[in-house]
Amino acid sequence: GKRQTVYASDLKILREKEKEIQNALYSNQNYSEGNITVHELVEQYLALKNGIKRKTEIRYQRELGRIKKQDFAYLPIKSVKPSQAKRFMIELSNIYSYSTVNGIKFVLSAAFDLAVEESILLKNPFHFKLSSVIRNDVVKREALTEEQVETWLSFLKTDAVGARYYDTNLLLLETGMRISELCGLTMEDIDFSKNEISINHQLLYDSGKSERYITSPKSSAGERIIPLTATARKALKRILKERPKPKVEWVIDGYSNFVFLQKNGKPRTGDLYDRAFQKLVKRYNQSHPENPLPEIRPHILRHTFCTRKAEAGMNPKALQYLMGHSSIDMTLNLYAHTNQGFAEEELRRIERC
Length: 353
Description:
This protein is mainly alpha-helical. The chain has 14 helices and five strands. The protein has helices spanning 11-26, 38-47, 54-68, 82-93, 98-117, 146-158, 166-175, 179-184, 230-242, 270-287, 298-311, 316-323, 328-332, 340-352; strands at 190-191, 196-199, 202-206, 211-215, 224-227. The strands form two sheets. A three-stranded antiparallel beta sheet has the order 1-2-5, with no helix packed on it. Helix 3 crosses helix 5 and helix 7 packs antiparallel against helix 9. The chain is elongated, with a radius of gyration of 26 Å.
């Protein structure tokens, strides 16, 4: 997209240079540069990513590690053509899930954009839709139906192991919190006199370093005050009553008095709930093969909260605030996930108006 000027001492040399440029265009490379390897380019791109959240940095480094395990990472970028990039994605799909491959492609495409921007390459070989190369097998995330929620909660309440997670599930379903926000809750974030909780940080776990850390919410919109429903208030009261009393309160990045603790006093993290919920669903389905539950993870409960509130007709901007979404589009997309029954009811309601 930028005008380039090439000079020569005579027409013959100029034609030779023109031919070189045409060959370079065909092979996607700048004819004078491009010897840096793929993984070196990605490392250069990541070195320029200042100010990103630790969770994002961890994800980028994980993608770089996956790239460096492949022979493709050691090719000079000037030799990478779209067909090679596509073949690489196909090879990765034999190792990783579609979502993981998509994450790797995102990093590679951004890095090659940098090479184009700096005139090392003329075109980005990763400018294609991943779904045009490999099948998108990502299962669409579905909110739980009211019947499924009732079944799930009933099972948790009566199951010896599930009972430990009953109130946590209630709180997630009643507030729509991210699991990292719930894990980060401290005593100071709860105000029963005002009947509200303050969301201003989240607790995450770095599996590479085996350490917990505090970070700000996912976006500035993530900082919010969530009113407690009567059900949420009772659940939180019971949680606090059953909370272990450690000899020493853990302090993480200046925060302490965490609400959700393990028996040893360590603050709980989202991965622990994720695994626990999966085991409980498996436990339920083994004893109820005639009426199995779908996959249930903490984020599914957040998704369910948003979907149910959307179906109930909550003002989208109010719902956006409660969810901590930075864009109203993220919230409105949840309306598309409502079920056929709700759509039919809405149509009849409009007809009556």
